[in-house]
Amino acid sequence: MRARLPFLAAFLLERLGPVDEELIGDVVEEYQSGRSRLWVWYQVFVAISLNVARTLWGHRRRAAGGLVLAWLVGGSQEYWFARSIEWVSSHADLSGPAGFLFLSVGIGFSNLVVGYLIGRVCRPFGPQIAIAYVVSVVPFAVISAVYTAAGAPDALRGWVVLWTLGQLCIVGAAAIIGAIVATGLPHQRPLR
User: Fold this and answer.
1) Which residues contact 188 (CB under 8 A, 6 or more apart)?
2) I need a labelling partner for 85 at 20 to 30 A (CA). Which of 16, 62, 117, 190 fits?
3) What pTM value is reported for the model?
4) Domain boundaries in the chain?
5) Among 5, 25, 33, 3, which Cα is nearest to 188's?
6) CB 130, CB 179: distance < 8 Å
7) Cα–Cα distance between 133 and 146 in angstroms, integer?
8) HEC-encoded secondary structure of 6-75
């Protein structure tokens, strides 16, 4: 018999899931009685998705304001980050792994700031609005991946697509972590 949920699943349910003690209790009981981790992750994904949808629908003005703020701040940061990359690359060689690392850290940091601002402005719904921001960025990331891969040499296309998808993961994680940190304490008792 397992004593508790996987750490990350419990963490995400505490901060992003619904305030529904019965639902969470049922997930914990089912997991303790032998359900698989895959089943737990499916339940966590569904609970968070429904909570985000309910929050956005119930607080449309705040959600719209948070998304507009995120797009404006995120877009301006990305623009200035791209301009600084152009300046740095004109003075230093940013090809290879060092260039990818530099870009990844910069994009991650800028989206951490975006998530933090969403969390501060849209309290207590910051994490849910940050998830909506990440979902709204997905089409642009896919377009960017296709455009970047089309311009890359044949031997590098696969790596470019993987790197772009990795960037999307970094953007998502950074924005959600920033919002969770800015919002503060979990909205329910610990599950661990």
Assistant:
1) 14, 17, 19, 21, 24
2) 117
3) 0.65
4) 7-56, 60-183
5) 25
6) yes
7) 21
8) CHHHHHHHHHHCCCCHHHHHHHHHHHHCCCCHHHHHHHHHHHHHHHHHHHHHHCHHHHHHHHHHHHHHHH
